[in-house]
User: Fold this.
Amino acid sequence: MMKTESKNRGSLSAMVVCLVMAAISLAGLAYDGGQVVSSYMGLSDVAENAARLGGQQIIGVRDGDPHVDIDAATKAMKAYLSVRGITGVFQIRGTQVQVKVSQMISMKILGLIGISRRTVQVVRVVDVVDG
Assistant:
């Protein structure tokens, strides 16, 4: 009878460790995953608004050559993002404005199991149309 008892010694501890790790992982996915989704939605809104602001800097409409003023659009978008503490990359071609922003998110709970941070990146494009 002693042999069976010594064979199973410590198996409950291993099971408890596995259950605790699973609980931490699940809580981390819920909390930190929610943080990532929330950050994505906020960045998406900021990038979209910056792209719209850049698209409003259109010139040459009366001349029949509408295009976005690159300098004015870049300046306006940089100022908008700067107020929000975000930097971005802008690409302007004709009447199309593209804004790419990213933000590093620290994982509070998933950091306990080795996933310390995630980068959230959003690209939004505005194409100014006539009519």
Notes: The mean pLDDT is 88. Helices lie at 2-7, 11-55, 70-83.
